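A.,

Following up on our hallway conversation. Structure tokens first:
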């Protein structure tokens, strides 16, 4: 986890995406509580929606953080990834994103978040935490722009802020 400058530009509010993501108040509080309990380490997991309503998260899958330094970053347990993708493959659900906490109290995506945001459109729910519990929540959509004409066709990765609506 870094300094939160992974969002395009310095003024993160300028990158607001008007897309609304719905999350029940109960589920949001569950993720916030988990984040607070894991402090000072990062917690993590996956966001699940139905295929026909991908902007409405109806459940989360909590994962073990297997990062070498869970105080500064997260890595979702690969077995949880395999099991979750296998489960949703045979259902009407889809994995639409991930969640994790930032124990430094910063709600903005970090440089390491941006570097790992390799799936265009994937949602990232970030819960800022501190010694007093969960502080703020931010929902972001990973975006990629390929610079055409370059020899390597490099991809620019950034996040667009989404409006998080509690139902």
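Then the amino acids I'd put at each of the 167 positions:
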């Amino acid at each position: 986890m870094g300094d939160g400058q992974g969002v395009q530009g310095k003024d993160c509010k300028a990158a607001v995406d008007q897309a609304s993501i719905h999350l029940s108040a109960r589920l949001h509080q569950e993720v916030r509580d988990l984040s607070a309990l894991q402090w000072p380490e990062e917690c993590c997991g996956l966001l699940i929606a139905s295929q026909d309503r991908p902007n409405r998260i109806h459940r989360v899958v909590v994962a073990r953080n297997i990062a070498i330094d869970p105080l500064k970053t997260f890595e979702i347990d690969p077995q949880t990834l395999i099991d979750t993708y296998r489960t949703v493959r045979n259902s009407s659900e889809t994995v639409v994103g991930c969640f994790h906490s930032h124990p430094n109290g910063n709600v903005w995506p970090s440089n390491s978040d941006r570097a790992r945001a390799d799936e265009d459109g994937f949602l990232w729910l970030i819960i800022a935490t501190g010694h007093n519990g969960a502080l703020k929540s931010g929902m972001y959509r990973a975006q990629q722009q390929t610079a055409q004409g370059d020899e390597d066709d490099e991809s620019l990765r950034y996040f667009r802020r989404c409006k998080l609506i509690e139902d």
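The chain has a mean pLDDT of 87. Curious whether your intuition agrees with the design.

B.
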